[in-house]
Design goal:
Layout lengths: L1 E7 L4 H11 L7 E7 L5 E7 L2 H7 L9 E7 L14 E2 L5 E6 L5 H10 L10 H15 L3 H9 L6 E7 L5 E7 L4 E4 L4 E4 L11 E4 L4 E6 L5 E4 L4 E2 L3 E3 L15 H7 L1 H9 L3 E2 L4 E2 L2 H4 L2 H5 L4 E5 L1 H18 L3 E5 H4 L11 E6 L5 H12 L3 E6 L5 H5 L2 E4 L12 H20 L4 H11 L2 H9 L2 H9 L6 E6 L4 H15 L2 E6 L16 E6 L5 H13 L3 E7 L4 H5 L2 E5 L7 H19 L18
Parallel strand pairs: 18-19, 18-20, 20-21, 21-22, 23-24, 23-25, 25-26, 26-27
Antiparallel strand pairs: 1-4, 1-10, 2-3, 2-4, 5-6, 6-7, 7-8, 8-12, 9-10, 9-11, 11-15, 12-13, 13-14, 16-17
Helix pairs in contact: 3-4, 4-5, 7-14, 7-16, 10-14, 10-18, 14-15, 16-21, 17-21, 18-21
Length: 613
């Protein structure tokens, strides 16, 4: 993986491709490349380790003519980041070029077999095996590229989203997907291909989302043809793209991450609009209403997610159990899929993913589907794989999240899980007073987040104090234990400082050995939940000369007096505190990373949409 762009039409392809790669930089990558069929009919490839800007500098003075091309940003899986391993990859004859997201698990055996037939490999990638296999099938069977592609794909084990250009047929593109996202923008006598919508939104709002094991054949002046790998034709379903260009630009902020932190008040309002009804003290979710019997009959809820979404799932567990009185389990998708979980047909599996394309979570869904479970998806990207694979679900609707470190997606996931819990409790009349209280407070959360954001400069000043630190401990209790995990993750992701989150009471069972005057400890201590207990935990830290950074409720004097630094949040009820306590932690991580000169939008080794295992 990571980013795919393709163009076929009458315009010059290169400007569209290079701008598309720039739009995809948020996904994280280590090299970039482009293939063009230029005005002389030659298939040329330019690629470079490093940033898209490095590629753009490399091609200065080159022949960049032509209206057919493909481009790619690579996040290394097979082979180190370098010019040779960057995509696109040539076939043996040089007639074909291919870009690919995903992992081909049987690439070694394919390379061995193809080498025995005289094919030469120049890279360490699994991708090169695909383009060589396609050409081998064309040559050995004496068939066209269109005929060879489905045969080749039938021999691949693994995941792919790929686009192919053919020097001998410059007026065509072929794209295919299995387990990795790919969509096609449809314009006037032109086609745009992208791994997501960001490279396409500038040119057209009409898109076709390819399903697994589908192949799209595009030709200038013709209608697009879609088949499955068995060559059965499928009717392309054109959908309107619900995204604007302004949403994927920084809007005056220095980084996407800071923009998205500040977007959270409006993003949450949008996410709740049409679902949360304060006057009626209710939440209306079509996915719950339409599947009332199945939801009420649930033996238990199983939440599957990865990373930040897993932390949101932990908060979801607490509120679902409190309101519905049904057992809830929270699973790492990557672990769930590789063990033998005990699943029942009356289980409800809730899959959470910002991108809707997380490979491990999609695999967990498939495992649950095979056991007859009811599948409920929560994601942000409309038309992505999870909403198409699950039985029903909810979009968080917070707009594109460009920064690799998730911020507004996390708070939206938490707010969505809270609304989900309320909607399920409504079905059988549970906890009416608590539901009313939560709804009354939930509508106030956006304005309370906005108040916290007013402390941005103060948090920036605090943060400079801690650039020396090599380790952090984050402590929280109850609803704020998952926030401690999320705060620690944010710091690790973008500043590269090691940090760990713990339930505050667990500090005594080992981590307390680490605390000294060099150890900063972030304590999430709102005046809700187990407040007195966490006060005791702070005293334990101070007794060992640890530096305490506390998240406190406005007006709190006890924790303030014990802390070296503190950040205030407005008061709210216990189950909603994570929506507030996480905000200063996001800003804290951001400003430490900036002070250390880190690339906060594209931290090293990370990708936005993890479509490989």
């Amino acid at each position: 993986m990571c980013g795919i762009v393709g163009y076929l039409g009458e315009r010059d392809a290169y400007p569209i491709l290079i701008k598309g790669l720039s739009r995809l930089e948020y996904r994280g990558y280590d090299s970039a490349g482009v293939a063009l069929i230029n005005g002389n009919g030659n298939l040329v490839i330019y690629k470079s380790k490093g940033k898209v800007a490095d590629l753009d500098n490399l091609v200065k003075g080159k022949d960049l003519s032509g209206s057919t091309g493909i481009a790619h940003t690579r996040w290394a899986t097979h082979g180190e980041p370098n010019d040779v391993n960057a995509h696109p990859h040539f076939s043996e004859s040089g007639n074909l070029a291919l870009i690919h997201n995903g992992i081909i698990e049987n690439y070694k055996s394919l390379r061995t077999e193809l080498s025995s037939h005289g094919y030469h490999f120049h890279s360490s990638t699994d991708t090169e095996a695909i383009v060589q296999l396609i050409e081998y099938i064309m040559d050995s069977h004496h068939i066209t590229l269109e005929e060879a592609v489905p045969l080749a794909l039938g021999n691949l084990v693994g995941a792919y989203a790929l686009v192919i250009v053919n020097k001998k047929d410059p007026d065509s593109l072929i794209a295919a997907r299995k387990g990795s996202p790919l969509l096609i923008g449809v314009g006037e006598n032109e086609f745009f291909v992208g791994s997501d919508a960001t490279p396409i939104v500038e040119y057209t709002d009409k898109v076709v989302y390819l399903d697994d094991e589908q192949i799209a054949y595009m030709r200038k002046g013709k209608e697009m043809v879609i088949t499955d790998i068995n060559k059965v034709k499928k009717t392309p379903v054109v959908k309107k793209l619900n995204m604007s260009l302004s949403q994927i630009e920084k809007g005056g902020f220095p980084h996407f991450m800071l923009k998205e932190i500040f977007e959270q008040p409006s993003a949450l309002e949008t996410s709740m609009t049409g679902r949360l009804y304060e006057k009626e003290s209710g939440v209306k979710l079509t996915g719950i209403i339409d599947n009332k019997e199945r939801i009420l009959a649930a033996r238990r809820f199983i939440i599957c997610a990865c990373g930040t979404s897993w932390h949101a799932g932990l908060i979801g567990k607490y509120i679902l159990e409190e309101l519905t009185r049904k057992p809830v389990e929270v699973e790492y998708s990557s672990e769930f899929r590789y063990r033998k979980p005990v699943l029942f047909p009356d289980d409800v599996v809730i899959a959470i993913s910002q991108s809707g394309e997380t490979a491990d979570t999609l695999a967990a869904i498939q495992l649950a589907k095979e056991s007859g479970c009811f599948l409920f998806g929560i994601c942000n990207v409309v038309g992505s794989s999870i909403p198409r694979t699950t039985d029903t679900g909810i979009y968080t609707h917070v707009g594109p999240e460009i920064g690799v470190a998730s911020t507004k997606a996390f708070t939206a996931q938490v707010a969505t899980l809270i609304q989900l819990a309320i909607a399920i409790a409504e079905l059988d009349g549970r906890e009416p007073e608590l539901r009313r209280e939560i709804i009354s407070e939930l509508v106030k959360i956006p304005s309370k987040i906005a108040k916290i954001l007013e402390q941005d400069q103060m948090i920036a000043d605090y943060s400079k104090t801690f650039t020396y630190a090599r380790n952090f401990i984050y402590l929280g209790r109850g609803y704020n234990y998952p926030v401690a995990l999320e705060g620690a993750l944010k710091l690790k992701e973008i500043s590269y400082i090691h940090a760990e989150g713990y339930p505050a009471a667990e500090m005594k069972h080992g981590p307390i050995a680490l605390i000294d005057e060099e150890m900063p400890v972030v304590v999430i201590a709102p005046r809700r939940g187990n407040y007195e207990k966490i006060v005791s935990n702070i005293q334990e830290v101070k007794a060992r000369k640890g530096k305490v950074i506390a998240i406190v409720t406005e007006g709190d004097t006890e924790v303030k007096s014990m802390s070296d630094f503190y950040i205030e949040i407005p008061d709210t009820i216990d189950c909603l505190t994570p929506l507030l306590t996480v905000i200063p932690l996001q800003l804290f991580s951001y400003h430490i990373a900036i002070a250390k000169g880190r690339d906060v939008d594209q931290p090293r080794n990370l990708a936005k949409s993890v479509t490989v295992e």
